[in-house]
Amino acid sequence: MRKMLITGGTGFVSGFLARYFVYKHWQVWVLNQGTKTQLPGVTHIEADRHTIGDRLRGLRFDAVLDVIAYDAPDVESLLASLEGQPEYVLISSSSVYPETLPQPFTEDMPVGENRIWGDYGMGKVRAEAAALRLRPDCYILRPPYLYGAMQNLYREPFVFDCAVKGRPFYLPGDGSMPLHFNNVEDLARLIFLLLEEKPAQRIYNTGNPDTITVRQWVELCYDIVGTPCQLISVGAEHPQRSYFPFYPYAYQLDVSRQQAVMPQTTPLAEGFWHSWNWYRTHPDGVMKRDYLGYIDGVIAKG
Asked: Could you tell me if residue 269 is inside a domain?
């Protein structure tokens, strides 16, 4: 049985990956501070990644999935604590691409500051640089917006809530802004294939090969819930993040490298159905924001 260490293991992406690789019959350890309930089937290592000490001594892993590295010191402290040379996979972000570059973004483009993502994006840039310096043979994955089962961010769950309540949905502008999504199970399948096949390419954009407009996304979520969708356009005088879960920033990734390894991805309708099926049975697992407070208290009052 192969052995894997996952940083985190209790949140959305790290928890899903832990559950996925347990299902794939890997022996999975998770490294976190023990503040949340641990998933069944994993071995918990309670530690802060910056003060691991000898907690990993004597443990040798076949692979390490670093899901919660947000800056260079996160990568450096973990790699310094590992014994042997396990395959190292860094979950980075598409926020590493400057918004000024031509789209779709490709893996060969330079990384740097993105004014939308700010410190978060630059932290990921530094994390990638540290990983490449210390482990040039690592895999780096750059997903767009992640969604699916175990979602804990108030993105599609917000649209589902509006649909369940039969509310009209307040749409940024005409709803033509595209969104680029990555189903979390597709991310897990890609990692599994990378570890199995060990392709020569080491940096991958991930996600569905096509984007979807905001309008299409909202209509899809309402259709999944089974509620007719009434859309109301909101003007630019209202800050988009006050009433809607995404920034006013459209981008697209070139995922041809991913497709060479994993030709098929989950259709959006199927993926968001799984997200809805998870959310309606786990409504308390989402960090909700008061978008409706702004909608009802400001926009609707005119």
From this structure: no
CATH number of domain containing 26 = 3.40.50.720
Q: What is d(CA 7, CA 89) in angstroms, rounded to the nearest whole number?
A: 11
pTM of the predicted model, to two decimals? 0.97
CA–CA gap between residue 91 and residue 187 (Å, rounded)? 10
Instruction: Please say whether the beta carbons of 62 and 2 come within 8 A.
Output: yes
Mean pLDDT score across all residues of the chain:
97
Residue 123 belongs to some domain of the structure: yes
Q: pLDDT of 91-128, one tens digit each?
A: 999 999 999 999 999 999 999 999 999 999 999 999 99
Q: What is the DSSP letter of 5?
A: E
Residue span of the structural domain in which 285 resides: 156-180+210-251+280-299
Residue 203 inside a domain? The answer is no
Nearest to 73 by CA among 52, 45, 44, 98: 52
Both structure tokens of 254: 């070139």
Looking at residue 36, what is its pLDDT? 92
Does residue 51 lie within any of the structural domains? yes
